[in-house]
């Protein structure tokens, strides 16, 4: 599986100006990436991970590059983390900073124009639609709980918390916290 993933990355990087090294990770790091990424993959496909299918969903491809970049960042290899993060953005127009912390079973539907800013925290089973921005305001970053759904064109900024099992409607600007089980559709 590791070799198949490396081959797929090499094919994809040929389409980009970025040149991350698939050999910057050891086998144990690849196994950790695969373990968490298989959960993300299961939100798009049933069955085993097939590397050649990752490219068909921009959100999945961006998440794959994020998982690699995050592992590199945690291993103090920020230069390669930036290469993988930039590769994901260049191929998908989805920007996920490698300093963000994203739980398992993550999914981005459509995704174009989505930005997950540095140091953002997103829980497990989150679902984001396109053109979402989660970013900084007054030096603070948002924390998104588990099983949160965020609909298109929403901006979430600042040192706030969105509680577990919440649903955030489309076209909103959010800069205050909401408790668990919130339905946020107007400000």
Give the structure's gist in a few sentences:
With 187 residues, this protein is of the alpha/beta class. Helices cover 32% and strands 16% of the residues.
Q: What profile does the largest beta sheet have? A: 5 strands, parallel
Distance between the termini: 47 Å
Strands ordered across the widest β-sheet: 1-4-7-10-13
Kindly give the count of domains.
Answer: 2
Cα-atom radius of gyration: 16 Å
Give the fraction of residues assigned to helices: 25-40%
Q: What structural class do you assign from the helix and strand content?
A: alpha/beta
Tell the overall outline: globular
Number of helices: 4
Instruction: Count every beta strand, where a strand is a DSSP E run of 2 or more residues.
Output: 14
Q: Which consecutive residue ranges, at least 5 long each, have pLDDT under 50? A: none
Mean pLDDT: 96
What is the helix/strand order? HHHHEEEEEEEEEEEEEE
Strand content: 15-25%
Describe this structure in words.
The protein is α/β, with parallel strands linked by helices. It folds into two domains: 1-94, no CATH class; 100-187, 3 Solenoid (UDP N-Acetylglucosamine Acyltransferase, domain 1), CATH 2.160.10.10. Helix content is 32%, strand content 16%. It is built from four helices and 14 strands. It has helices at 2-13, 27-41, 58-74, 78-92; strands spanning 95-96, 101-102, 107-108, 115-116, 121-122, 127-128, 133-135, 143-144, 149-150, 155-157, 161-162, 167-168, 173-174, 183-184. A five-stranded parallel sheet has the order 1-4-7-10-13. Helix 2 packs antiparallel against helix 3 and helix 3 packs antiparallel against helix 4. It is globular, with a radius of gyration of 16 Å.
């Amino acid at each position: 599986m590791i070799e198949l993933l490396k081959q797929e990355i090499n094919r994809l990087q040929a389409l980009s100006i970025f040149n991350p090294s698939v050999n910057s990770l050891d086998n144990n790091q690849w196994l950790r990436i695969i373990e968490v990424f298989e959960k993300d993959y299961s939100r798009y496909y049933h069955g085993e991970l097939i590397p050649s299918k990752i490219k068909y969903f921009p959100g999945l491809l961006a998440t794959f590059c994020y998982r690699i970049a995050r592992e590199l960042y945690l291993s103090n290899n920020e230069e390669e983390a930036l290469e993988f993060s930039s590769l994901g953005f260049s191929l998908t127009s989805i920007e996920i900073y490698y300093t963000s912390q994203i739980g398992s079973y993550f999914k981005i539907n459509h995704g174009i124009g989505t930005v997950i800013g540095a140091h953002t925290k997103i829980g497990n089973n989150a679902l984001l639609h396109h053109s979402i921005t989660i970013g900084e305001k007054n030096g603070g970053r948002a924390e998104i709980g588990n099983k949160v759904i965020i609909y298109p064109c929403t901006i979430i900024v600042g040192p706030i918390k969105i509680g577990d099992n919440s649903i955030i409607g489309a076209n909103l600007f959010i800069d205050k916290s909401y408790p668990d089980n919130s339905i946020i559709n107007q400000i």
